[in-house]
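=== How it folds ===
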Amino acid sequence: MRQKKESKPDQGEKAQHKTTKDTVKASAKAIAKASGVGEKLRAVRKKRGLSLEQVSELTGVPGATISRIENNKVSPTLDIIQKIINGLHLGIGELFTPVQFKRTKPEINLRRSEEGKVTELSNFIYKMLHPDVLPCILVPSLVSTFARTVEEYGGYMHHEGEEFLYVMQGSLELCFEDRDSCILNEGDSIYFQSHLPHAYIALGGRQAKMLIVSTTPDPSVLGVSDT
């Protein structure tokens, strides 16, 4: 029996495939630049006087990858974000705070729902609610997770301070590395020490949206301006 020859893609299909790859690549760069993570990572690294190699040793992320993130050539996945946060001992909000913020400590700080910057990563959406109040002890943020496993979330994260979580929508499992996990439904809340390695997992095949308020023992890492 004569075997059929596999049909080769024509020039039009090749061109379409190349266009799709270019579009995906351009979108990744746009997302990376919009997130501001690269700019913030470079600011933290420079402030601490660290080289790319030193950051690589501390985080386990290759120096070439760190460089690509800083130059907005790649949008970091959440597992890489976790490694950077843990290796540099940052709070979750500290990579998403705009680099140049005038140091303010008003008695009242009002922000409308349409204000603020939303950072989108795979399986994770983050919005810091009052990034212009710096330095601060409390860091309130809105977080949505789509991760279904600890691996999808990027592994366990931990940082100094304390953390309060209130479930606004959906259900989630708060997983701890060395103790029992907790199931939280809409309206539930929990308070815990942030040094405990933890991860947020969405349940029921839908996103879980939460209000998280964490403490920042060392606001200097935010890199805010004194003027």
Q: What stands out?
A: The longest helix spans residues 11-35. Strands lie at 118-121, 124-128, 138-145, 162-169, 171-176, 182-184, 189-193, 198-203, 208-215.
